[in-house]
Amino acid sequence: MEKQGKSVGVVAVKGGVGKTTVGINLASALAREFGKQVVLVDANFTTPHVALSLGLVEPQLSLHDVLEGNYSVFQALHYHKDGRFYILPGKLNARTDKHHKLKREVDKLRKHFDFIVIDSSPSANDEMLSAISASDELVVVTTPDYPTFSSTLQAVKLAQEKKVPIAGIVLNSVLGKRFEISPREIEQALGVCVLGEVPRDNKVIEAVYHGLPVIVHSPRRKVSRQYKKLGAKLLGQENYDAGFLDRLNKFIARLRNVR
Fold first, then answer.
1. Domain coordinates of the chain in residue numbers?
2. Cα–Cα distance measured from residue 125 to residue 180, given in angstroms and rounded to the nearest whole number
3. CATH architecture designation of domain 6-258
4. pLDDT tens for residues 53-81?
């Protein structure tokens, strides 16, 4: 029986909010923690960063090659062993005007993967619209400050115009300070639920240096637990306890060492 995978677009109408980081760790959480077959598509055509963030400096084949009709989408997939998911990378300095073909390629991937996570352009342009149109639902990434919040409102409006449902908002780089916009304020203003709050953590930057998702590099950090919870919420597992599972795995590892 063929799969009918779900496509999840990760969007933000502002650079620097950690959209790509959220996409990478969401893909890895779904694959590593929940055993899903996942592919992460870098649909940020102009400035693709997924491959670089995962240690793949110059991918031989990319999404650009696929959209230009030179190769099949499956030829351009790269497996990230530590993250346990596939990457369909973009290519720096490559150009294409065939963004509209993205949905067709995503539909091909549905038959072989449980989830297709799409990292979009950080600008409200044709690139972002192609990613939104290829998505079954969206995760909107923002930071808890007012300038970014105004851009987040634009992303929500774009989704509503395209009639693509929003799974929720991810509040990224949270400091836990009183001057930050609260999840409740965001939910009241946008009418969209906050899926999770991801704390700011230098381990995220360190993980990129090593070409790893932070949930692989530093699995017991709070930031990693939040990404696992985000994956659980997309699967409808509201009662998932990442901290409990980490403690259980640590206990099992100790038992094995005793033997």
1. 6-258
2. 28
3. 3-Layer(aba) Sandwich (3.40)
4. 999 988 999 999 999 998 999 999 999 99
